[in-house]
Design brief:
Blueprint: E1 4-5, H1 20-28, H2 30-36, E2 40-45, E3 51-63, H3 69-72, E4 79-90, H4 99-117, E5 123-126, H5 131-139, E6 143-144, E7 151-154, H6 155-161
Parallel strand pairs: 4-5
Antiparallel strand pairs: 1-2, 2-3, 3-4, 5-7, 6-7
Helix pairs in contact: 4-6
Length: 166
């Protein structure tokens, strides 16, 4: 299965991951967010061009005062540049087939590439929608940011985890 950039022509009207906020986002907002440049979206589609999984990335920052020591010790700026993995979802009919893991690995790789070649960033941030999502990210090495609900992985840690460190 290939992970490709979202296009409006892909069929998403029947997408359902079982989490209304993610389903509604995909059905109502993804096209606008992508066309406006607010985020990028990557999808896995089936042979009928129906979306079976997706994730979004966008530029973001976190206030230095709220950042984990691991990030704020490296620079002296009021905000720390990060990449936001805003949403990641797999249609219920395709759960248990490692599509979530594939999407996350792709997002990790893209985050390193963007950070090193296009827009500097120090970490990938996620804001898990629920405990199930939080457990998913913990399993892959994300760390909680105290008092925020968000989690992060530094770009350096991502490089090491996926074998891209120099």
């Amino acid at each position: 299965m290939n992970i490709i950039p979202y296009e409006r022509k892909f069929k998403g009207e029947h997408f359902s991951c079982g989490k209304p906020a993610l389903d509604n986002y995909f059905l109502r907002n993804v096209t606008t967010d992508v066309s406006s440049g607010a985020s990028t979206c990557f999808v896995i589609i089936d042979e009928n061009e129906s979306v079976i999984a997706f994730y979004t990335l966008s530029a973001d920052s976190i206030p230095s005062v709220d950042a984990p020591h691991e990030l704020k010790k490296k620079i002296n700026y009021p905000h720390i540049p990060v990449i936001l993995l805003g949403r990641l979802a797999v249609d219920q009919n395709y759960k248990g087939k490692s599509y979530g893991k594939l999407l996350l690995i792709d997002a990790l790789k893209k985050s390193v590439l963007v950070s090193k070649t296009q827009v500097g960033s120090m970490a990938l941030i996620v804001d898990p929608i629920d405990e199930e999502a939080e457990n998913f990210y913990v399993k892959y090495g994300f760390t909680k940011i105290p008092d925020s609900g968000k989690m992060f992985m530094t770009i350096r840690k991502i490089e090491e985890a996926i074998g891209l460190s120099s």
